[in-house]
Amino acid sequence: MGYTLGLKRSCLTSEEIERRLADAGVHATAQRIAIARYVLCEADHPTADQVKSWADKNFPKMSMATVYNTLKILVAAGLLKKIAFPHLNEAVYDDNITAHYHLIDEKTGRMSDLDPADFKVTANLKGVRIKEIEIFIKGRRELS
Amino acid sequence: MGYTLGLKRSCLTSEEIERRLADAGVHATAQRIAIARYVLCEADHPTADQVKSWADKNFPKMSMATVYNTLKILVAAGLLKKIAFPHLNEAVYDDNITAHYHLIDEKTGRMSDLDPADFKVTANLKGVRIKEIEIFIKGRRELS
DNA sequence: TCAATATTTAGATTAGTTCTAATTCAACTC
DNA sequence: GAGTTGAATTAGAACTAATCTAAATATTGA
Q1: Are residues B124 and B66 in the same domain?
Q2: Does any domain span residue A52?
Q3: pLDDT by residue (tens digit) across A20-74?
Q4: What is the CATH number of the domain that holds B53?
Q5: B68 and B34 part of one domain
């Protein structure tokens, strides 16, 4: 329930973004609000470069350092996940912060989320304390 | 059977390495034999840098380009797997070319193999053609 | 208002990896 | 065997993602 694959939730206003930042203990500056709004509402698994490109069109004079700093702050605040997928050479950022897995389309390289409810994983590992399981699937979504 | 976690198989001779290269359709040069022997027999999930360091001590005048080229050739030939683990910034190379999963020690960052026989993964994904599943577990091996 | 602190900026820096052009090496032919 | 051809190797430059730095700017609180 509540897991809307591929569907982007309706966009939040700047005020709502500001409140989410404040709730997460992040001081809301203009740059941070703009980036947060883009990555949380508009973008789909963007790279830092894509965030910068968007900013170049929609925000005056934003530096790459601010993009990276802000993304790092959002990740630390728990509003965003940084994902370094094997076989990709750039990190992508995921606004879905619930536990979930990832599919990478082997043709397009595009990443999408997979609902963990669709998986059953049982591990029989003696002597290993598991903290986190990440599953990456390479393949294709069939268009049907 | 035959899955020896953490145990390094006994080292192959240069002649045996040469034969494995030839069988894989790789022209066996001195540099390639040296690197292949190191990564297939001696090293454990080495990075390109570690291969280079080893070469600096054990082979005259080997360039970084040759290290990268050779690793790429060995990967293409199916003798080695390149692994770009999330949260690591260097790729590591794995001589275990059978399907398996990976544990990354959250303290040391050290990677080790996990036997897929110890896992049961069932995915119920409609409309997704799965080509490859990668599982990364973050945690710790308990010393017992 | 003024000082103190935090944020942003441009550009330099780093690290990993790939590329390039010249050189060296190996394998064939004669 | 000597010469030719193509492949492999080399040093170093170039590239890319990401981080760092120091100066400038904005924000906050007294």
Answers
A1: no
A2: yes
A3: 999 999 999 999 999 999 999 999 999 999 999 999 999 999 999 999 999 999 9
A4: 1.10.10.10
A5: yes
Contact B45, B85 (CB under 8 A): no
Q: Domain containing B106: what range? A: 98-139
**How far lies A61's CA from each of A31, A55, A64, B82, in Å?**
10, 8, 10, 39
Confidence of residue B108 (pLDDT cuts 50, 70, 90): confident
Q: Contact B143/B110 with Cβ under 8 angstroms?
A: no
Residue A33 belongs to some domain of the structure? yes
User: Are A82 and A95 a contacting pair, CB within 8 Å?
Assistant: no
A134 CB neighbours in chain B (<8 A) are 86, 135-138
Pick from A84, A128, A132: CB nearest B141 = A128
Q: B106 with B54, same domain?
A: no
Q: Exposure pattern of A80-108 as b/e (b: 16+ CB <10 Å)?
A: bbbbebbebeebbbbbeeeebbbbbeeee
Q: Kindly state whether residue B4 falls inside one of the protein's structural domains.
A: no
Number of domains in chain A: 2
Probe site for chain A from B94, B105, B114, B121 (most A CB atoms < 10 A): B121
Greatest Cα-to-Cα distance within chain B, rounded to the nearest angstrom: 55
